[in-house]
C-alpha cells in the first residue's frame, strides 16, 4: 500500500515508482487526495503495463494497479 495522501506531484509518482522497482508487484494499492496526482499515477502505471481501477473514498481516491 502506498499512502500518498497530503502529497503533491511529483512525490506520489516517485513513491509508486519506488514500489514498482522494489519488487515488481502484480498489484499495488495507492491512496491519493489530489486529482493531479491521481492522473499522473494512472498515466505512469499504464506506461508500466498496469491496469488501473479508481475508486473514490470520500475526499480520497484508491487506485488499484494490477498486472
UniProtKB/TrEMBL annotation:
<feature type="domain" description="UPF0033">
    <location>
        <begin position="2"/>
        <end position="67"/>
    </location>
</feature>
<dbReference type="InterPro" id="IPR001455">
    <property type="entry name" value="TusA-like"/>
</dbReference>
<dbReference type="InterPro" id="IPR036868">
    <property type="entry name" value="TusA-like_sf"/>
</dbReference>
<dbReference type="Pfam" id="PF01206">
    <property type="entry name" value="TusA"/>
</dbReference>
<protein>
    <submittedName>
        <fullName>Sulfurtransferase TusA family protein</fullName>
    </submittedName>
</protein>
